[in-house]
Structures are given as structure tokens and as C-alpha cells.
Amino acid sequence: MIDNRVEMKMMRKLMMFALMILAVQAAWAERDSTQYLQPTESHMKEARIITQILDFVHYRDIDLNDSLSSVIFDNFIESLDGNKNYFLESDIKSFEKYRFTLDEDLKRGNLVPAFYIFNIYKNRIESRLDYALAHAGDKFNFQKNESFMIDREDEPYAKSEDELDELWRKVLKSQALSLKLSGSTDEKIKEVLTTRYERFQSNVEKYNSNDVFEIFMNSLTEAFDPHTNYFTPLNAEDFEMNSKKSLEGIGATLQQDNDYTKIVELRPGGPAFKSGEVNKDDRVVGIAQGADGEMINTIGWRSDEVAGQIRGPKGTLVRLELLPAGASAGAETKIVTLVRDKINLDDAKPVSEVIQMTENGQKYTLGVITVPDFYLNAEEMETKPDDYASTTNDVKKLIKDLEAQGVDGVMLDLRNNGGGALYEAINMSGLFIPGGPVVQVKYPQNRKDVMDSESTEMFYDGPLNVMINRFSASASEIFAGAIQDYKRGVIVGEQSYGKGTVQQVRGLNEFLRQSTGEELGLMKYTIAKFYRVTGSSTQHKGVSPDIEFPSVYSAEEFGESSQPSALPWDKIDATNFKPLNYVDDQMLASLKKLHNQRMKTDQLLLDLQFDINELKKSRARKEVSLNYDVRKKEQEDLEQRRAARVKVGASLSELEANKVKDRSLDDLKDPYLKESIRLLADQIQATKKKG
């Protein structure tokens, strides 16, 4: 793909590049004496390879033109200073000359504009940190009625250094007030803030050209879609290591996000996943070791440093202070205590339990199978084709055990299941439908594959419901969509994530005609799109449940639909499939009526709704008071709500791996699980009436 003609022009472009560098350096010297980060020859080469991958291989057929250049420009500025804490209005105006030229620059491998913008950014950060360190010990008037805007996304950039100074005065005052409310003395506040910003300053000094290049390249890739990413050689190693299920830690993949470290993936079966309290896109703002170690603020740390603090030996405690996904800087945080563990394939295995309940004088024995991931052991598949480790085989065994205990129905819990092996989503569907198409996959040039289940008869034909939430994605959505389309079972919960795309991971070296021995980075890019048997895409819209539960996660803030560059929903021709009609409109209407009644009368569901409303209010807040008495009352009210709060989300830690447990409905503390079980009982009754 990278042809010889491009390489023949290398020397001429290098000369042009060198002249541009000299010009920018001269301009920079007039502004500041700080070290100027520059792109390398490898970066130039990688930029050209990446643009060609996106042009020729990516699923999305869009041109790298002026329009896309504008998107890349906005992505880059936002990735650097999304909360508008550093740049001046004059900076942004001076950058505007690059808005419609980045497309041509990228094709030529010209990275000077991106590096110029970043160096201005770095200079602005250093200036702000100098201010913070100079004023870390200031005595603030906490009786004054003023507020601090924590979410500045929609605010204008500061017009002057004085305006930035005022903004940062409030930043420091808000942080000092938080420390004061926690009992810190003035001396301790100064010490904590000084340490925090000295560490931040040290990390800024460590910025290198690879950091700049990765940020800029991902500003490009994310203009195509949110699941296309570039990794530097160093981060590519971390990515590949995190893909292996043999680490000791909490089971989370981290990524830099402005001044924060963001959780971008949770390992099924890992401590973070099992807790039910850690979510994708949460940001780590503090880390403490052990049960009583000091909470160290990690804002401004590099993601590799944060990862180093989180990793540790199996059995040890780590406490994380998390800023919830979608919340603004300065919003309510939460403390989560996790026990580090070894992450391996077995942790992704489904688990089951038996729930006993009585409703309207009728006794029910109900089976629950929690499916964290869709996986298969490829090596075992070759050596033990009849008994290899896979989601389908393991679920099959659990169903057999549950049927031996005489369960009246089965519920599959797919909450927080982010997907995995497509093959397994298809095979597991075959346990509940008697063969036929399960999913369609469409590639560029309208090439389409219809993928069928290999089963010829249902392994389990009893009452079935499937619970999903906003973080059920990809293969989970394929399975849930097939069960819904075949009218085989009832889908309950929240609208799923909406990830209906397929990615491929390849090293950039693979795209060179001839290896140069250079260590280049890695690309993950989108190559195809999923469609249900009805022809409807799972992309963007996901799967809408038949019975919808209240959710703290709005589609506008979480999931695929919250991503500006997400591929759109569309529809293709339906496959030739025959619905089973285990579930019909009359049954669903009856179930909805019973569910709505409980939503008005059941105390656990009422508490859940209240809790969700409070969390939404907190998330929507864009300002905080800088008055001691006001802030103290807010904190006291928050603690009271926390004390009475029912945990929102999955309670996976309640289950012991691979053990069938026997509990009653009253034992369940998870309102979603409890209501799903009740709906399964309602479904069993409706099935009996249907005959």
C-alpha cells in the first residue's frame, strides 16, 4: 500500500519539513524558551501509513478532505483542553489557519501544525502550574458567596492571562475547600496542593514527541469512528499485554484523557468488573494502597504511572477514587475498594444460582446464569473439539445442572458483558433456537455474510428472559437481538450500548512493502458492521428491551449514540428466518402492566428510582459553591444519601464462581435482578395460560 513513489519523494519532503521546523522554532523562541517537541521521521512515515489505512481499508467510506480536517482540528483541541482551562481565546484564533489544511498535511506526513499547537498547549500548562504552585498556600475567604464552574465545555476561552488567573484562583479555592471539609489544616492543605502540582509539573516535563503524535493520530482516527485507534510502539505492547488474561491487578485497561486517566475496558471476571461499582469511562482521580493508606491525587499523572500504582500482587487491597463517567470535573466522586486478583480465562466463565420465590401463592424455582463474556479457548478447540472451554459449552453445563434441580425457567444476565467472540454469540444462540441465521455481517463494497447457528434443535426450550444494560455490547447485543427477533424469550433491562461494528488489529509494519527494521505502532480499525436477522443494525441503537427498567445512563451521555463519530444506524434486507413465537404482543402487554404496577408500589424499585434521579441531578450540576457552610451542608446531605443508597448496577460479587447457590427472592439486594426474576415468574404464568 505504501508504494515506492512515496518513498522516492522522501528526501524532498524531508528538506521541506526541516525548513518548516526551523521557521516554527524561530517563532516559538520569541514566545518562550521551553523545550520544543518535534516529530520524528518515523512519525511522518506512520502518519502517511495511517491515512492510507483509513482511506483504503476502513469500513467508513469518507474522504480525508477539508470537512474532515475541521473535525480533526476540533478533536485535537478538545483532547488537549476540553474544559478550557489552559488556552487563551487568542491561541484558538491563531490555530484557525490550520482548520482546513490538516488533511493535506497528514497525507504528506507534515506534523508541524499539530506539534506547534501542542507546544503552545504545553507552555500554557506550565504557566498554570507555576501559578498553582505560587498560590497553593493562599488563605481563602470561605465565607464569601461565590461559585466555581466545574464544567466549562460550553464556556468561552479566557481572553487574557488575568482571566485565567481568576479561573485558577477558583480551582485552587475549590480544592482547598474540599481538603478543609475533610479536616485538613492550612499547613496540610498547602502541602497537599503543592505536592499535587509539583507531581503534575513533573509529568508535563516528561511529555515526549510520541505522546503528541499519539494524541494527534487519535484525533484523526476518532473522526472516522470511536473504535478506531492508534497506539505507539510502547502503548501497543501494553495493549497486547492487556489482551492476555494473565495479569495480576483489578482487570481494567487505562488510557490518557486530558489530565485524567480513563478506564476504557473492564476485564470480565476481574475485581473491577465483579464489584459492579466501576464502569467504562470512569476516571481515576485518586489511588490509595491498602485499607488505610493515604489517598494520593492522580490528576495530571500519566496513564502508565496510574497503571503502575493500581497493579499489584494478588490478594492486596487498592482503593480508587473515581470520577463517574460523564460527570464534570469537580463533581461528586466515589471510593471503591478492590482486592487485586489474577485475571485469567476462568474468570470470564458464567456462574449460576437458584432463586426460590412465591408469588400469589405459586412457588417458583428459577435459575439465573450470569454471563460476563463471550470467549472460547482456541487451542482446546483444536485438541478437544467435544469439550473445549467456551461460553456456549459452559452455559450448556449450567443449564443441565439447573434442569436437574427442577427450575421452572432460566434468566441470562448479560449486564456489563462487553462482547467477545462472535462465534460464541452465534453458538450460544443455538442453545435456545433450532438453527437458522443469527447475525449478518456487512463489509465494504456491500459484501455480506449471513452467519447461522449450527444447532438443529434447542438444548433448552423452557421460559427464558435475558437481562441487558447500557454496557451490554457487541456479541451481547447479537445474542439478545436474536432471542428477541425469534420471539424466543423476553428481553428486560436497559437499552444496550449500540456497538455494531467489527474491528481488526494490525501493526503498521505489515503495511510496508519492505521492512525497514523500524519499530512502528499499531492500528485498531473498523472493517465491518453487524445486522440482526431482521436487517436492522445493532449499531448506534443497540437492542431495546421488551420491558425497560429505569436507568441512570442516558443514551445522550453513554454508549455509542453519545459518540459524535459513531457510524449511523441503518437497515439491510432481512434474512429468511422463522420466528418461534414463544413470546407475543399479548404476553408482553401483560408483563409490562405487572412491571408498571410494581414500579409504583415496590419499595426497592421506588428507592432505585429516587437514587437514579439524585445521581442524574448530581451529574447535571455544572457549578459548585465555594462557601464553606453551603458546601458542608451539600456534603452532609450527600453522605446521608449515600448511607441510604441502594447500589445501582450488577451485584456480580454476590456470586461465587462455578457454584450453584440457593437463595430466596428476599435475599436479593440488586433491584434489577429482583425485578427480572419477578418478570420471569410472570412470564411462566403467562406461558401456562397461553398453553
What's the short version?
The chain has 691 residues and is an alpha+beta fold.
SSE diagram, text form:
Blueprint: H1 4-8, H2 10-31, H3 41-56, H4 66-81, H5 89-95, H6 102-108, H7 112-134, E1 147-149, H8 161-181, H9 186-205, H10 209-221, E2 229-231, H11 233-243, E3 248-249, E4 252-257, E5 260-266, H12 271-275, E6 283-289, E7 296-297, H13 303-310, E8 317-323, E9 334-339, E10 341-342, E11 351-359, E12 362-370, H14 378-383, H15 391-404, E13 409-413, H16 422-429, E14 436-442, E15 448-453, E16 464-468, H17 475-485, E17 490-493, E18 501-507, E19 522-531, E20 547-548, H18 585-601, H19 603-620, E21 623-625, H20 628-644, E22 661-664, H21 671-690
Explain what the structure shows.
With 691 residues, the protein is of the alpha+beta class. The chain folds into 3 domains: 4-221, no CATH class; 247-342, Pdz3 Domain (Roll), CATH 2.30.42; 345-690, 2-enoyl-CoA Hydratase, Chain A, domain 1. 41% of the residues lie in helices and 17% in strands. It contains 21 helices and 22 strands. A 7-stranded mixed β-sheet has the order 20-17-16-13-12-11-22, with helices on both faces. Strands 4, 5, 6, 7, 8 and 9 form a 6-stranded antiparallel β-sheet that branches. Strands 2, 14, 15, 18 and 19 form a 5-stranded antiparallel β-sheet that branches. Helix 16 (422-429) packs parallel to helix 17. The chain starts with a helix and ends with a helix. The relative contact order is 0.10. Mean pLDDT is 85; it is low at 1-33 and 644-660.
